[in-house]
Amino acid sequence: MVITSESARPYVLDLRVWQQRDLSRLFRRLLETPTAEDHWYDWKGLKRAFPGVRMPWHQSHPWSATLLLVALAVAFLHAYAVLAM
Q: Membrane spanning segments where (predicted)?
């Protein structure tokens, strides 16, 4: 979800990390404010539509995030194997 205003930079909310209670409260507050019609964007389209938006690192660099996760998993398994000996 992208929240924009005329006076501030756009802000991206990752709704997956919000608790349901807080998210419901946010949506109730947003119902009181004027909103634009809904649009769906992929990450590149979002960056083009809202140039000042700050996206989560793992979303803007998916291959780097995946490689980092794999490297951490391999390091963990290696450390576990070494300590188990």
A: 63-83
